[in-house]
């Protein structure tokens, strides 16, 4: 394995994160480097980054092996907190290296991309959050939860800016009507690498 192989990342919905961890075999837990650096989150919320066997030896030295049920519990809590799952993988071999549950207050890469308005160039996903217009009451709560600013209310109707939606799932928790679902849209982004 070429340790210099470039690392790519993509946004995945919580359900897909759970599926990947359930199939991945051994997972390793470490402190989130962004949270340690920023210290904007409580210290007991730092241990949210999951590594896989294809992470670098240096990264694995700072992690400890955990049981699958513990990793799944961490992901469940992350989803309830509205964290964004970023999956990291090797560009050529498609080997998974890490799954981060990122908060918007500490994640430096997400914040920098948003400030530069260029995260659509750097982030990928083949999922989008689709709203059922018949159920949507136009309350606007999903706008507040959308970190990527992919939703707009125009004359009381919700509009999705498709290229800015990565299917992260934050809007699902904020919708009191259950009008939003995450859907696979082939060709929207890029397929999630298989667990190798």
Average residue pLDDT: 86
Supply the number of structural domains.
Answer: 2
Anisotropy-based shape = globular
* Strand elements, count: 10
Oligomer: single chain
DSSP helical segment count: 8
Describe the structure.
By secondary structure, the protein is an alpha+beta fold. It has two domains: 7-112, no CATH class; 117-184, 2-Layer Sandwich (Alpha-Beta Plaits), CATH 3.30.70.20. 29% of the residues lie in helices and 26% in strands. The protein has eight helices and ten strands. The strands form three sheets. A six-stranded antiparallel β-sheet has the order 1-5-6-3-2-4. Strand 5 and strand 6 form a beta hairpin. The longest helix has 13 residues, at 68-80. The mean pLDDT is 86.
Based on the model shown, name its key terms.
196 residues; alpha+beta; single chain; six-stranded antiparallel beta sheet; two-stranded antiparallel sheet
Summarize this structure briefly.
By secondary structure, this protein is an alpha+beta fold. The protein is built from eight helices and ten strands.
Topology:
Layout (H helix, E strand, L loop, with lengths): L6 E6 L1 H10 L3 E5 L1 H6 L8 E5 L5 H5 L2 E3 L1 H13 L3 E7 L5 E7 L5 H9 L2 H4 L4 E5 L9 H5 L5 E4 L2 E4 L9 H5 L5 E5 L12
Antiparallel strand pairs: 1-5, 2-3, 2-4, 3-6, 5-6, 7-10, 8-9
Helix pairs in contact: 1-4
């Amino acid at each position: 394995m070429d340790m210099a192989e470039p690392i790519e990342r993509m946004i995945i919905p919580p359900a897909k994160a759970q599926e990947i961890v359930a199939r991945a075999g051994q997972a390793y837990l470490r402190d989130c480097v962004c949270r340690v650096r920023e210290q904007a989150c409580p210290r007991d919320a730092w241990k949210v980054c999951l590594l896989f066997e294809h992470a670098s030896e240096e990264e694995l030295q700072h992690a400890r092996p955990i049981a699958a049920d513990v990793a799944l519990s961490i992901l469940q809590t992350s989803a309830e907190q509205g964290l964004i799952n970023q999956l990291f993988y090797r560009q050529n071999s498609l080997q998974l290296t890490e799954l981060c549950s990122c908060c918007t207050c500490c994640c430096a890469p997400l914040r920098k991309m948003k400030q530069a308005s260029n995260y659509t160039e750097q982030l990928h996903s083949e999922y989008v959050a689709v709203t059922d217009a018949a159920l949507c009451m136009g309350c606007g709560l999903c706008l507040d939860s959308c970190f990527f600013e992919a939703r707009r209310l125009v004359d009381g109707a919700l509009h999705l800016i498709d290229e800015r939606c990565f299917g992260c799932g934050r809007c699902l928790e904020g919708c009191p009507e259950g009008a939003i679902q995450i859907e696979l849209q082939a060709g929207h982004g890029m397929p999630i690498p298989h667990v190798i």
